[in-house]
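REVIEWER CHECKLIST
Item 1: Sequence provided? yes
Item 2: Single chain? yes
Item 3: Sequence as submitted:
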Amino acid sequence: FACPNRRGRKVLSQHTPALNDAPTQKPSNYKIKNTQTAYRELIKTVHQFVLHYDVCYTSSHCHQLMLASPFKGSHFYLDLDGTLFQTCDLYWKTNTAPADDKKGNERSVHVEIANLSWEALAKQAEYFPSKKDKYKKIGKGWKLNLPDEYKVMNNSFRAMPSRAYGERGYFSKKINGKMVRMWDFTEEQYETLIKLSFGLNQLLPSIKLKVPLDKETGQHPLDRLKNFSRFAGILGHSHVQNGSTGLECKYDPGSAFNWARLHKAFKKVKP
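Item 4: Structure as written out by the authors:
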């Protein structure tokens, strides 16, 4: 899965400036002049790891949509079974979350996590209409009905949410003014995401091992943050973009995402 639409970060110097926000060029044009200098510059530039749901069945499905776009891309895809795909060098920018200040992609790296979001609900599905919800209750859990054309690396894998909400299964919370209903991500996705977060923190230390947290309430906010551009750590697309400057309002990684789990995992690490 090679990123189909890389771009140059404007503040970095180890590439041809013509690659900044230009129409996608042939892969051979994306050359990094001096990798050591590039890395030093990247460390000073990137301080956010932005999480997204891809509104797709699987990462291969997500990549198909990226290929069809003239500008979309993501550094990482995280599949249902926990398989992680890196699509390009982190030196490059991907147009995944411009943020309300329209500078978000310059300071960030991104991961698209396989999850249908509200498309899994028959009554809300727009892109993938269905007569029934795409998750089915089996015993004490829920299972995603995965079409044959969408596969994961592990052929025997059963996509089941890490958690379920009551009898209905899906979570429902308001984010940036919209009620978002969705099933949770898989256990395997959380395990890989936490490992990826630790890895990125080691590689790019300005990405702190922290998530948005209201210290007064102890809750993890879901709406856009007040000082979203300065936050250094792991956050969601919804935390940086509510559409107030003319861009599309965003809600990912959504109402089911377990921010408390990441917070707990990061707190175990001694400073």
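Item 5: Key structural point noted by reviewer: Residues 52 and 252 are 5 Å apart (CA to CA).
Item 6: Recommendation: ____
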